[in-house]
Amino acid sequence: STGALDRGNGLNGILVGNSAGANIIGQAVAGGGNVVSGNNGNAGIEINGSTTGSNLVQGNIVGLNAAGNAALANSGAGILIDGGQLTTIGGTLAAARNVISGNALQGIRITANTATANIVQGNYIGTNVGGTTVIGNTRSGIQIDNGADSTQVGGTAAGTENVIAGSGEYGIYLTDSGTIVNRIQG
Questions:
Q1: pLDDT tens digit string along 34-57?
Q2: CA angle 20-23-57, nearest 5°?
Q3: pLDDT, the chain, mean
Q4: Which residues, 6 or more positions from 57, have their beta carbon under 8 angstroms from its beta carbon?
């Protein structure tokens, strides 16, 4: 009940799939987010399927305890978009920030050639909730692969930049020949 111990699910913490759209996971207000940690599926939060889109993920702690100061790793990625599109992870307000740290694979992975026009902005990836201590993800902070395209990571406007720290591999990793037209800023 305190959010300090690993009580993860056998699969994902949250799964959005089968054409589900316009769902909101968390909220950009103090206390409006979820703690999604210690799960044993593909990801803490997974958005799956080529017709699954327009979802919003904000204000969550993914891969850490409820205090946001120690890892309670999800066994896969913190957040996985596998074919989903038009999903926003984070936002420009501090309250919209997700803290995605301590996960066994990537902090965020966006994969498949139907994963298009997703946005990753304003998050702390690989830090504690204050952004002051490194609690890295085991692999990359953000990985975009297998033909995912038109992803916006960061931006030039205030509040759009992500903090990415302590990754076991790359901060941001783009791979595969069809992974094109992705923008990394801020």
A1: 999 999 999 999 999 999 999 999
A2: 120
A3: 97
A4: 25, 26, 45, 47, 79, 87, 88, 89, 90, 98
For residue range 145-160, list pLDDT tens digits in order: 999 999 999 999 999 9
DSSP bridge partners of 111: 82, 145
Cα–Cα distances (Å) from 69 to 63, 126, 133, 172, in that order, read: 10, 11, 8, 23
Residue 177's CB is within 10 A of a number of other CB atoms, namely 7
Question: 28 CB contacts (<8 Å, ≥6 apart)?
Answer: 58, 59, 91, 93, 95, 96
Q: Are 60 and 36 in contact (CB under 8 A)?
A: yes
Q: Residues 33, 61: contact at Cβ < 8 Å?
A: yes
State how far the Cα of 87 lies from the Cα of 21, in Å rounded to an integer: 9
The strand ranges marked E within the chain are 14-16, 24-25, 35-36, 43-48, 56-57, 61-62, 77-82, 88-90, 99-100, 108-111, 119-121, 124-125, 142-145, 152-153, 163-164, 172-174, 183-184
> Coil, helix or strand for 95?
helix
Report the C-alpha gap between 38 and 135 in whole angstroms: 15
| b/e code 147-158 from CB counts within 10 Å (16+ = b) | bbbebbbbbeee
Two structure tokens written together for 27: 């909220």
